[in-house]
């Protein structure tokens, strides 16, 4: 998010690819994707129609072919095949699609995949180390913080953000800062208990 | 695969940004929390989306002379983490938009350009006398936020203009924004009120009050503010101010509330907001 991430050297080329069509638009992201250092910068860009969009998800580079209109949520689920991130409302109200981008929680239905090129995207699939669950995942199981489980991936990702931000200091604070995640089974007391326990363990 | 949709542009400089916004059918895309679902629903049909978030000049908050400059693409989450007394009424609003995940993406400039009558940062921008800096290929112009709104979701900004920054003058006094909602979070204001009070020796020497979600645009109520000047903001003075606020409102019935309920809420909400601003004004030391 800081200005030093911006690759100013790309500005000269971006006008030349303006309206150059799919082939030219596709070439730049592929080139950036092959070079880790280049992928860390925020290149200027132009995209009309489908093109390969480099997305770093759970430490792996994916290059799905996407139109600019595709949300990050749809890119993750339907193009990359990571269906752990759930689509509830698809309009930013339920929180089931919460993922981390550069460590900050966002709703993946409210952002376009092309806007997240070069970012570190973390989904629920990226939390466990082999059989060893992330402490937040373990706390959700330990506290019986789910019934149907549909909202759980979003709850877990949001809880990680909430704890990282330092917003899990009390039950009231947890309730306030987890308010973007709805649970139709209404497991809220157990979710708060899980976040409280995980926050203690992660501190 | 159909190629319906739009061209996505990601400029890195203001010069490229305003060139991109001059394209026919261009829309500025900031956080996307409003624009992405609006576009998906067909409510807007951009030919070009210009992602403004990677232009360095549009990010961050800094003091410039006797004003605070807020880059238009500064997120509400970044703003909410600040502890700046002179921005209180804006920060009160920035902290309650949507939920944490929304505020990580949503921007102050996006909230201003969306120009919803219920926008939670807009009443704060009004009472703190903020000024929008607009740039286009035709040049730069500075528009006070009080002259910005022209109707529900409408404003004086031309599509070819980029909102680059918002400047808020540093002034003494205390400010606050409060809203009424049925749920604490993930809701839009049914009624919103912001106030700014400057107090010297216990007497109000300057004031501003703005109301949201009870008129076609967020709006200042100068008559209400004037009744407070020269008083100690006692119960009687605040009651007078509330009368003017109610008189200046023209709420409608809609999905979030009825006209009658909004009018009923407006009075106590104005009072609560004024008392919070007063507490902050009395607690603040001169800069």
Description:
The complex is a heterodimer of chains A (203) and B (287). Chain A has three domains: 38 residues; 68 residues, Beta-grasp domain (Ubiquitin-like (UB roll)), CATH 3.10.20.30; 77 residues, Orthogonal Bundle (DNA polymerase, domain 1), CATH 1.10.150.120. Helix content of chain A is 37%, strand content 12%. Chain A contains eight helices and eight strands. The N terminus of chain A is likely disordered. Chain B has three domains: 45 residues, 2-Layer Sandwich (Uridine Diphospho-n-acetylenolpyruvylglucosamine Reductase, domain 2), CATH 3.30.43; 114 residues, Uridine Diphospho-n-acetylenolpyruvylglucosamine Reductase, domain 3, CATH 3.30.465.10; 108 residues, 2-Layer Sandwich (Enolase-like, domain 1). Chain B has a five-stranded antiparallel sheet with strand order 4-5-10-6-7. A four-stranded antiparallel sheet of chain B has the order 11-12-13-14. A three-stranded parallel sheet of chain B has the order 1-3-2, covered by helices on one side. In chain B, strand 2, helix 2 and strand 3 form a beta-alpha-beta unit. The model of chain B has no long low-confidence stretch (mean pLDDT 95). At the A-B interface, helix 1, strand 1, strand 7 and helix 6 of A face strand 1, helix 2 and helix 5 of B. Chain A: One of its GO terms (molecular function) is oxidoreductase activity, acting on the aldehyde or oxo group of donors. Chain A: This is (2Fe-2S)-binding protein. Chain A: Pathway: Alkaloid degradation; nicotine degradation. Chain A: It holds the Pfam family Fer2.
Topology, number of strands of chain B: 14
> What overall form of chain B do the CA principal axes indicate?
globular
Mean pLDDT of chain A: 84
Number of strands of chain A: 8
- Which chains make the largest contact? A-B, 51 and 38 residues
Assembly type: heterodimer
What count of helical segments of chain A does DSSP give? 8
C-alpha Rg of chain B (nearest Å): 19 Å
Largest sheet of chain B: 5 strands, antiparallel
Q: Give the C-level CATH assignment of the largest domain in chain B.
A: Alpha Beta
The end-to-end span of chain B amounts to 60 Å
CATH topology of the largest domain in chain B: Uridine Diphospho-n-acetylenolpyruvylglucosamine Reductase, domain 3
Radius of gyration of chain A: 18 Å
CATH architecture of the largest domain in chain A, please? Orthogonal Bundle
* Domain module tally of chain A: 3
CATH class of the largest domain in chain A: Mainly Alpha
The number of domains of chain B = 3
| SSE string of chain A | HHHEEEEEHEEEHHHH
Kindly estimate the percentage of residues of chain A that lie in beta strands according to DSSP. 5-15%
Range of strand content of chain B: 25-35%
**Spatial sequence of strands, sheet with the most strands of chain A:** 4-3-8-6-7
């Amino acid at each position: 998010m800081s200005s030093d991430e911006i690759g100013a050297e790309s500005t000269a080329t971006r006008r030349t690819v303006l309206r150059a069509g799919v082939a030219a638009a596709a070439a730049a992201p592929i080139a950036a994707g092959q070079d880790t250092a280049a992928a860390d910068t925020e290149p200027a860009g132009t995209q009309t129609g489908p093109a390969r969009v480099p997305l770093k998800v759970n430490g792996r580079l994916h290059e799905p072919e996407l139109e600019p209109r595709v949300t990050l949520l749809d890119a993750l689920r339907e193009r990359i095949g990571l269906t752990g991130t759930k689509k509830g409302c698809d309009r930013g109200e339920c929180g089931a699609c919460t993922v981390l981008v550069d460590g900050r929680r966002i709703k993946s239905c409210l952002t376009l995949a092309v806007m997240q090129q070069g970012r570190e995207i973390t989904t629920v699939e990226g939390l466990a180390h082999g059989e060893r669950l992330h402490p937040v995942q373990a706390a959700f199981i330990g506290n019986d913080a789910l019934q149907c489980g549909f909202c759980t991936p979003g709850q877990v990702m949001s809880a990680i953000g909430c704890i990282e931000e330092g917003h899990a200091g009390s039950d009231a604070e947890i309730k306030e800062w987890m308010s973007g995640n709805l649970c139709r089974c209404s497991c809220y007391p157990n979710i708060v208990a899980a976040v409280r326990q995980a926050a203690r363990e992660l501190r | 695969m159909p190629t319906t949709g739009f061209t996505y542009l990601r400029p890195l400089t203001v010069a490229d940004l305003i060139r991109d916004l001059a394209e026919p059918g261009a829309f500025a895309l900031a956080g996307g929390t409003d624009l992405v679902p609006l576009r998906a629903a067909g409510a807007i049909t951009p030919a070009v989306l210009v992602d403004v978030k990677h232009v360095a000049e549009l990010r961050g908050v800094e003091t410039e002379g006797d004003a605070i400059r807020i880059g238009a693409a500064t997120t509400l989450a970044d703003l909410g983490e600040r502890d700046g007394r002179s921005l209180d009424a804006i920060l009160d609003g920035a902290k309650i938009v949507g939920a944490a995940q929304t505020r990580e993406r949503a921007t102050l400039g996006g909230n201003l350009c969306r120009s919803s009558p219920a926008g939670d940062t807009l009443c704060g921008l009004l009472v703190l006398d903020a000024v929008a800096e607009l740039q286009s290929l035709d040049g730069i112009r500075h528009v006070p936020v009080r002259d910005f709104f022209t109707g529900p979701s409408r404003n004086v900004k031309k599509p070819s203009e980029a909102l680059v920054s918002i400047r808020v003058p540093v002034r003494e006094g205390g400010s606050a924004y409060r809203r009424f909602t049925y749920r604490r979070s993930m809701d839009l204001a049914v009624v919103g009120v912001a106030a700014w009070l400057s107090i010297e020796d216990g007497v109000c020497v300057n004031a501003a009050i703005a109301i949201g979600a009870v008129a076609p645009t967020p709006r200042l109520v100068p008559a209400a503010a004037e009744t407070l000047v020269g008083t100690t903001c006692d119960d009687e003075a605040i009651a007078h101010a509330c009368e003017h606020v109610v008189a200046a409102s023209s709420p409608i019935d809609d999905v979030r509330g009825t006209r009658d309920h909004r009018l009923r809420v407006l009075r106590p909400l104005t009072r609560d907001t004024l008392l919070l601003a007063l507490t902050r004004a009395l607690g603040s030391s001169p800069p």
